Amino acid sequence: MTAAIAALFNHPIKGFTPQKLTTARLAPGEGFPGDRLYAVEDGPCGFDPAAPGFIPKQKFAVLAKTAAVARARTDYDQRTGMLRASSPGAPDFEADLTHEDGRTAFAAWLSRLLGDAVQGPLRVIDGVGHRFLDHPLGHVSVINLASLRDFEARLGRPVDPLRFRANIYVDGWPAWVENGWAGRALRIGNARAKVFQPITRCAAPDVDPSTAARDIEVTRELHRLYGHLLCGIYVRITQGGTVNNGDEVDSDPGPLG
């Protein structure tokens, strides 16, 4: 069952602005390139850079907890480490996140922007190779756009795919077929992957990324319309390769060559 890559995104800072890519190099057992490299701690989270481990998203300034995070528009250049951020009514921000003083400055800018919407104190954490994923084994996330179109049609209103903060958006599969694919092999471009599990949704997609308004109770609506809370799949890369917009995604790729 063949589809095509419609879009590729990473999220350099967990919970903040998605960044669109045209190509990415996937590696076995690793996360999506440039994805969830940093996180903004909202009060002490217990992260130990000497022994990094999974930390629940509730410990961070993310959309699932704080809709106002979407007011910040961020743009990170992984080659240089420079972050640019903006928000209506706030001064523009620029700093190097690879340095502690740059991370401290960004935390201060965010604190002024978000105010009482966060608990604080805010601290920007560099994973230094660790990824701040929503699931410790959810390395790369994939959304079937046909499933979102079906959700939109039944809901009776538009739903921005970026609410779901995926890495790979795929078009051409039947709606919701992916929910039964745990353990299934995929070919993505010239990479290979294995479906880990469907993604159980939290409150993050409730937030409109363009307005920062929490205007759809996505989990409630998924349960009402379908009797489940699933949208998208997590996959793990088993054979590295390059993926590009427009590449084929085959859900029955046959044996490895």
What report would you give on this structure?
The structure is a single chain. The protein is an alpha+beta fold and 257 residues long. It has 2 domains: 146 residues, M1 Pyruvate Kinase, Domain 3; 89 residues, no CATH class. 14% of the residues lie in helices and 31% in strands. The chain has 3 helices and 15 strands. The two termini are 19 Å apart. The model has no long low-confidence stretch (mean pLDDT 96).
Kindly summarize this structure in a few lines.
By secondary structure, this protein is α+β, with helices and mostly antiparallel strands.
Tell me roughly what share of residues is in helical segments.
Answer: 10-25%
| Distance between the ends | 19 Å
Strands ordered across the widest β-sheet: 1-10-9-13-12-11-15
What is the class of the largest domain in the CATH system? Mainly Beta
Q: Any idea how many domains?
A: 2
Number of strands: 15
CATH superfamily descriptor of the largest domain: PK beta-barrel domain-like
The Cα radius of gyration reads: 18 Å
SSE-based structural type: alpha+beta
Strand content: 25-35%
Stretches where pLDDT is under 50 for at least 5 consecutive residues are none
The arrangement of helices and strands along the chain is EEEEEEEHEEHEEEHEEE
Question: Count of helices?
Answer: 3
Fold-level CATH name of the largest domain: M1 Pyruvate Kinase, Domain 3
On the 0 to 100 scale, the average pLDDT is 96
CATH architecture of the largest domain: Beta Barrel
Q: What general outline do the C-alpha atoms trace?
A: globular
Biggest sheet record: 7 strands, mixed, barrel
